[in-house]
Specification:
2 domains; about 35% strand; elongated; two-stranded antiparallel ribbon; mainly beta; 14-stranded antiparallel beta sheet
Amino acid sequence: MADSAYKVLGPNDKVTTRTLLHEAIPITGTIVSGTYGTFPNEDNIKNFSHGMFQSVYDYPYLSSSANHIFDIAIGVSAQSGIYSSVTVQKEKKRNIYNQMAQVLVGYDVTGSVLQFDGDGDFTSTGDKMNDCIFLVFSRLLIKDEIKKESFNLELGVEVNRDSAIGSTRMTVMDVSASNEYRVNSPAGEYGILYATGAIDSAVTTETIGSHEYVKCGLIYYQAGVVVLTSSLFIEHDVTNGLLATNAASGMDGVEWLKKTSNQSQDNDIIDAFKANEISASADSFRNRIYNLQFNNTTELNSTVYFCRANHNEFNYSSNPTYLSESKVRVKNQSTDVPVSYITTIGMYNDRRELLAVAKLSEPLKKTPDTEFTLRVRLDY
């Protein structure tokens, strides 16, 4: 190949761009509860022998067509007021909380695992979330991250579990997260989740825009993890509860689990965290999901190279068939202007080793009285 076929690209001949692509992810409550079987034994719900979390699929999980959507787990901190009363899977519930906190919150200066904090301020002792529900979304859904200010979770908070999704609902959103997200997490950026609807009038709220909200959890955008406080399902007259008072007698919130043969009454979420397995609480949470949606984000990085063919460049082809007996085939007379057809652009390193090839959709005729700027984009 002749030297004239090469041209060095300068710093002004390339530019790097970053594009964020978003896709809407709607997950209706009917998918996670009741579509593929009778609740709570649906075919798209997978429980494991270790009992530490439950996986939700968009189709019966034994099918090759099934896609993993998210996992549900619960965790109880050793600093929780109910921890000493936990009788079932006590160590597992503590370990889940600690594992999530290690990854998402980190450690303090003494090397101790920090607790989840409702407002992201670890210098204060208040707003700690000690009894949590964790939603861990599949990378297939979130891609590179969850788009800020797109998360919306609608929960049914009717007292009776059998009619959990009725007219009484609560909506959880990452309001104003585009500007108010936090960065003091080892897992990346996270936002505060706020609840509205079915909140007790005595609960202290925040005014954001023209609406009243109350903090209820955290969302970690790059990790794809949502952390919800159990207070969402507890009455306000109980410590840290958010719900309006309407629970059945003997319960501190909505009916979370039906009573078993050795229990005298149905269980609220506090009872369930103490005396029931993680999978049972995961079932109850699924049963109260009315709608869940967010936008994912795919980060597309590109380098654009501007390959410029000036009027006096690339007028001769590097194709060996361009010449016949040292004569240019496309010239009838020696005085004719040269002509070539550009079909391919090769990207080389400084040792002239071919790294990438770009093909044009159709040949471009190049003569001394024409100039072109061809745009080559590499995505990664």
